[in-house]
Write a structure and sequence with these properties.
single chain, alpha+beta, seven-stranded antiparallel sheet, 4 helices, 33% strand, globular
Length: 142
Amino acid sequence: MRAFTIAGEHVKRFMQQLFKLDTFDAFEVHSLTLHSFTGFEVSGEKPEGNYCTWAELRPFVLPLVKAQKPRALKIVFAQAAPEAFHPNAAGLFVNMLYENDGITCTTGVQPQKFDLDKQWVAQWDDWVAAFFGKNGIVATIE
């Protein structure tokens, strides 16, 4: 697991990537919690058992964010086909938390079975760091 902190003027750029561009659109959304004038909780799970993509949810979340600046926003993003990344990956996650005018993103994995080899976990962390870099997202790695 790796934590990325996005602060200062870089928060605005991240939010533009999140809400105005298609940067995160391919990720599935497992859950979303938004606190503004009231609380909103969204499960990204569809009736057939798969998950909505950010491209599907973004048009519904954007008006809520525009209505009033959120006090907090948490999104659990997941890679759509984790087994393509590694055969033991049941889930590959990026947990995004916006609060106090800063953003923290943490990586996470869910293995299909216990495995002492953690190299693929580090590779996921590196993939997320490269994804941020490729998209101009400036983050400090904790």
